Amino acid sequence: MNIIKLKMYGIFKDYLEEEITIEIEKEKTIEHIRNYLTEKHFINELKFLKIVLQKSVFSSNNKILKENCIINNNDVINLLPPFSGG
Amino acid sequence: MKEKLYLLISEKEISTNQINMVRNEEIGAIVSFIGTVRNVNNEKKVKYILYEIFEDLVNNLIFKKCKSYFKKNSSLKMCIIQRKGILKINDINLIISVGAKHRKEAFMFCKNMLEFIKKNTPIWKKEYYMDETSKWINS
């Protein structure tokens, strides 16, 4: 298993801890993290966050990550909700 | 690149004096966008706004975009200043100033950079309303 740190931004910070640690199987991708959050965290009263998650992206090391990007042990991944700035 | 781009994310109030950063003897036109906080959005009265910014990634993305612009037009100069934190009504939240040889490029790159920042950079705005509710925009 890989241990991943997920850092929250924007609306996600209002409803989750600023940083959460998750365990995910080896050789899994960003897509799997997305599914994991949908199944384990964005449930019940947080179900509405699934829609936000669909429009969100992930980043690490100053880059936006593609859905098929493989996650490594001890990676720190940022969950970025839809942008609204400028 | 340092002499072509001035990029700042600031917690303090920003003024329009910084546009002098894009002036030199090669520049024949300066176009500036100045974004300010207005008091009504989606028919709700706004009390104040919070800007949250993922600074490292914003800096990286804007830096890369500017590099591509400067490749196309070597005499361009840009000044980009983004506020973060709590802003009140009328505060300036964003300044983009572009200096170019000619007005056509100045207008074009200013507009392009504004659209890029709005759509592609991790900056989030939360509006706080007079009725005590609040909303993250686009979420």
Please characterize this protein's 3D structure.
The complex is a heterodimer of chains A (86) and B (139). Chain A is built from 3 helices and 5 strands, in the order E-H-E-H-H-E-E-E. Chain A has 86 residues and is an alpha+beta fold. Chain A has a 5-stranded mixed sheet. In chain A, strand 3 (57-60) and strand 4 form a beta hairpin. The N and C termini of chain A lie far apart (39 Å). With 139 residues, chain B is α+β, with helices and mostly antiparallel strands. Chain B contains 2 helices and 9 strands, in the order ββββαβββαββ. Chain B has helices spanning 55-72, 103-120, and strands at residues 5-10, 29-36, 40-41, 44-53, 77-83, 85-88, 92-100, 123-129, 134-136. In chain B, strands 3, 4, 6, 8 and 9 form a 5-stranded antiparallel sheet that branches. The longest helix of chain B has 18 residues, at 55-72. Chain B is elongated and about 50 Å long. The A-B interface holds A 9-11, 14, 52, 55, 59, 62-64, 78, 80-86 and B 35, 51-54, 56-57, 60, 82, 94, 114, 117-126, 136-139.
Summarize the structure.
Chain A is an alpha+beta fold.
